[in-house]
Description:
By secondary structure, the protein is mainly beta. It has a domain at about 30-60 and about 80-200: Alpha-Beta Horseshoe (Leucine-rich repeat, LRR (right-handed beta-alpha superhelix)). The protein contains three helices and 20 strands. The strands form four sheets. A twelve-stranded mixed beta sheet has the order 1-2-4-6-8-10-11-13-15-16-17-19, with no helix packed on it. A four-stranded parallel beta sheet has the order 3-5-7-9, with no helix packed on it. The longest helix has 18 residues, at about 30-50. The relative contact order is 0.09. The structure holds 2-acetamido-2-deoxy-beta-D-glucopyranose (NAG) (12 copies). The site of one 2-acetamido-2-deoxy-beta-D-glucopyranose (NAG) has 5 residues, from helix 2.
Amino acid sequence: MAPLLNISISSNLQFFPAFILILILILFPCPSAATTSEAEALLKWKNSLHNPTNHSLLPSWNLLPSYNSTSSSTNSSHSSCCQWIGIVCNEFGSVTEINLTSSNLKGTLQYFNFSSFPNLLSFVLNGNSLYGSIPSQISNLTRLTHLDLGWNQLSGNIPFEIGMLVCLEVFWAHNNNLSEEVGELHSLMVLYLYDNNLSGTIPSSIGNLSKLSYLALQENKISGSIPKEVGQLSSLMVLYLYGNYLSGSIPSSIGNLSKLSNLALSTNNITGSIPKEVGQLHSLMVLYLYDNNLSGTIPSSIGNLSKLSNLALSTNNITGSIPKEVGQLSSLKELYLHKTISVVQSLH
Ligand SMILES: *[C@@H]1O[C@H](CO)[C@@H](O)[C@H](O)[C@H]1NC(C)=O
Ligand SMILES: *[C@@H]1O[C@H](CO)[C@@H](O)[C@H](O)[C@H]1NC(C)=O
Ligand SMILES: *[C@@H]1O[C@H](CO)[C@@H](O)[C@H](O)[C@H]1NC(C)=O
Ligand SMILES: *[C@@H]1O[C@H](CO)[C@@H](O)[C@H](O)[C@H]1NC(C)=O
Ligand SMILES: *[C@@H]1O[C@H](CO)[C@@H](O)[C@H](O)[C@H]1NC(C)=O
Ligand SMILES: *[C@@H]1O[C@H](CO)[C@@H](O)[C@H](O)[C@H]1NC(C)=O
Ligand SMILES: *[C@@H]1O[C@H](CO)[C@@H](O)[C@H](O)[C@H]1NC(C)=O
Ligand SMILES: *[C@@H]1O[C@H](CO)[C@@H](O)[C@H](O)[C@H]1NC(C)=O
Ligand SMILES: *[C@@H]1O[C@H](CO)[C@@H](O)[C@H](O)[C@H]1NC(C)=O
Ligand SMILES: *[C@@H]1O[C@H](CO)[C@@H](O)[C@H](O)[C@H]1NC(C)=O
Ligand SMILES: *[C@@H]1O[C@H](CO)[C@@H](O)[C@H](O)[C@H]1NC(C)=O
Ligand SMILES: *[C@@H]1O[C@H](CO)[C@@H](O)[C@H](O)[C@H]1NC(C)=O
């Protein structure tokens, strides 16, 4: 089975001297030229979309001279896209943000010229009807930190070139129809790929994403076991892997995730017992392990989880009694243990 993600971190860019970057910006501010080609690239893409005149935002997207104005307004004001709805520019007039959330866009990214946006930081296309694949040229958005392609109909593989986006911090592509996922993702803090068609396994290199706070891969077709390297994700607060085909046991290294507040591994085929290290997750509020093949007893260390409010272990093969320590869980609001074959009810 091919790995789901293929992650490596190259260190050669890490120490890129800031002064060289500043020097480049001083020497090549290149405002008008950049802006014109950005505007042209946006128009070209707009024209590739279905029914472009009917989009809720895109009417402002045009370069026609303003015939109203008899005045001295320069061409540059007409050749700039900085006033267009959904577009934000920097002080040099180059596009830094494109936000076309829920704009009724139907079409593909095939004619989007990624090379034209060297300064783009945020690209948000959430909630449209974009279909087709994510072009590998997306790697040309070299400064991108925020990419949101959620709630579209994108399909095919996530191109491994996304891994070349070394500044990427947030990547949302949930609720699409994406399949095999391959990428080398650096700097990432948020990875939302839930509700897709992702298959393959979670690679051990996931442990390299040391800045990751939110990992949401639920409702896919991911198989294999949870790599023990997940325990290296020391910033992790949310880990959602529910609704996949995961097997194997829960790695004890999970006890290292001291910031973890939500852990949901439910509706998989996870076996083995609940590691006692779960009791080290002092920030944990939600623990959903229901609908798996877990066996053994409930570790008494669960009584240490003073912040736990939701605990669901139902539909497993857990034996023994409910440890009396569960009665210490002062924050507990929801407790589901039904169908955990032969748990003796002795809750205090
Ligand atoms: C815009 O959409 C409406 C209804 O969907 C349609 O009647 C109209 O012809 C469309 N206009 C253009 C210019 O495509
Ligand atoms: C041009 O004139 C029309 C009608 O007079 C007006 O609705 C429109 O807002 C004007 N456009 C600009 C850019 O001033
Ligand atoms: C302004 O635009 C017109 C028509 O597109 C063009 O002929 C002219 O050369 C432009 N002027 C400048 C200063 O770019
Ligand atoms: C994008 O625009 C929508 C609606 O205008 C807004 O709610 C959202 O916060 C914006 N997202 C970003 C990342 O700027
Ligand atoms: C894409 O944009 C770049 C930079 O503006 C330009 O050099 C290139 O010709 C464009 N490619 C296409 C296919 O338009
Ligand atoms: C754009 O991305 C493609 C695919 O990754 C790559 O082959 C090409 O060299 C890139 N172009 C530029 C100008 O970076
Ligand atoms: C999802 O993608 C697969 C192939 O990648 C395709 O066969 C299927 O029709 C797509 N489903 C939808 C709902 O678009
Ligand atoms: C996933 O892909 C299968 C076929 O490859 C397709 O039948 C199914 O509709 C896809 N799921 C979604 C959510 O599009
Ligand atoms: C990334 O993870 C893999 C597998 O765990 C490891 O072999 C590799 O050395 C890691 N790379 C870096 C740069 O940490
Ligand atoms: C993570 O957990 C494992 C197993 O519990 C342990 O051996 C390892 O030392 C821990 N690593 C860190 C960085 O805490
Ligand atoms: C779950 O795992 C068990 C043991 O590894 C295996 O026998 C069984 O077929 C799996 N069930 C599913 C639905 O994958
Ligand atoms: C539950 O676990 C016991 C051993 O602890 C095993 O004998 C039994 O087959 C398991 N039942 C199911 C339904 O997996």
